[in-house]
Amino acid sequence: MSSRDRIFATLRAGLKEAVNDPGRRAAMLERIKTHPRNLVPQRAQIPHAQQVALFTAKVEALTVTVDSVPSEKDVPGKIADYLTQHNLPARLRVAPDPLLQNLPWSDRPMLQVDYGHGRSQDLVSVTPAFAGIAETGTLMLHSSSTTPTTLHFVPDHHLVVMKESQITGSLEDAFQRLRDKLGDVDNWPRTVNFVTGPSRTADIEGVPVLGAHGPRRLHIVLIADGTP
Amino acid sequence: MSMEVTSQFFEKNASKALKDPNLRKAMQIIGGPMASRRVETARELPEFEALRDEGVKIRNHVLQHIDLYLERFEQQLTARGGKLHWCRTPREARETILALCRSRDAKLVTKGKSMVTEEIGLNAFLEEHGITPVETDLGEYIIQLAHEPPSHIIGPALHKTREQVAELFEDHHPDYELNGRKAGPRSTEPQVLVTEARHVLRDRYFQADVGITGANFLIAETGATVIVTNEGNGDLTQSLPKMHIAVSSIEKVIPNLEDLSTILRILARSATGQEMSCYTTLSCGPKRPEDIDGPEEFHVVLVDNGRSEMLGTELQPLMRCIRCGACMNNCPVYHSVGGHAYGWVYPGPIGAALDPHMIGLETARHLPNASTFCGKCEEVCPMRIPLPDIMRYWREQAHEKQITPPLQRWGVELWAFAAKTPWLYRLGTRIAIAALNMLGKDKGRFAKMPLASGWTDGRDLPAPQSAETFMSQYKSRKGSRK
Fold it and tell me: What is the residue range of B471's domain?
């Protein structure tokens, strides 16, 4: 008997008579298919304009900085300002995502922009996000051919370009958007990252310190495109 | 060859811990800010208590269907290109992981935080076979340098002071120079020490052949494993090497993403008092053909190690545990003796309830006694696990199976007999009170007393003020009030 079989045999013995209940399999399949929501906090169930305000307040409380811009064409300027402000070299490692590739980088000829995954020498990354979650000030990002995961963790500074219309209320709202985008579960990406503030640790005497292993700073450029 | 067990020496370990000044300092942090942060963030979410109930419901539903959800998880994981390895014993898990590492010719393995790998004693085993494991969670890294086991499930090095950490770093990376430090003593500032660890571990992530992480949850709907961290080390560990191995245990399966959302809301608040930990990552399968980063292979090693035997028994509620550590952050006994005294991977109330099952009641028999039964652990447990009841169950088992020493057993039986025979009990207390009153009349207290040194070593025992027992005083006062 394989280990797998023995583990299952022990579990089924522990279930006792219930194991023969014909409704069990249907209950499991139903819960996966309909994935009903459990209790969702009131805090997340608010109109979109309030979600944007809550998201901004929540991320700022986590030391994330937010630059609101009226349109995409203002993004390169704001990013250049960020680099100057933090005394950083004018080099960016950027996710090869259409939104970012189509930004007017040429307006800022001093910026050295190259596309690809995160490498040890990269100080600053620029990535899109899939959604922002107002409830806790959380970013939802996922891997794809144009959004490599290493850009979210390797550089010291992680800059995120996203639109207000991407902000949702709850975690459940964000998961639903991802399901709607992907269709079948077979299209699920290798990884989904929820990022809530910069990297931190309290492992030495419980003292909170930012910048443990992941990005020391998280900065969001938020394009005010209104409500979806 | 799993992690060395010292639970059988709990009494000795605890006495030693009580005299350790560094530990006293560390325990103030756990009982102070760590416990109060939980209260604050919970207060900010009006639905917190209702969400705990929802969490319990999810876990109970899963336990009634656990075989089916595990099958579904395996099927989905396989469909995403991952591979599942079922391991009944720690030995089987170690061998499986070693074989996977060897298939990659691995020399260096980076590790995210995983209690199950502590449980199976993975690091020592890999080292014996010529593979270097490097812990990347700061707390785990510190205790790896110190050759110590973790003392807390989410803050493994909280028993270490900043001075001790600085000393360890001085010993292990003496050549490391931070901006400005040319000579002289190493700074003990946490910020400076964290930066040093960041720099030292940076190259390791890129050099590693295999990355090993734990998994807080397994999602049946998508076949994903989930890690919840603050440092980002787990993500670097699993996204840079060619192979990612997630080591977890069977009870961590949950149905879908909505259930994950609910449990995440109570996990971080209970653990660190955050609304959400910095990084929550879902991983399913290796890199897709079109992806430009990520591991080429993704393996999940699922360890049973006796868990399946808890189903359908008094211990089943323990399978709801989400390993948040709230029970230890709020336990007066843990605050007094620290995590190492418990002598195995899981300390505190959860350890006192779980360890007797996992390492044997004979070895762990002291742990269920390391409780004042104040009930705080059950009160704060997000999954409402009846920890005091389970500790009581173990005490009964120890008594019935004659694991408790004979003298203690006879004492309990004698007391039980007297308590169930009122006339005898009253006679006994009358004689005892009269004797104590007579002997202690002069001083009004006892500095020493046979069989009561546990009390009199630290303070005097007051002598009774009169020869009257409680019952006789009660009766006479009740009479006079009429």
Answer: 411-481
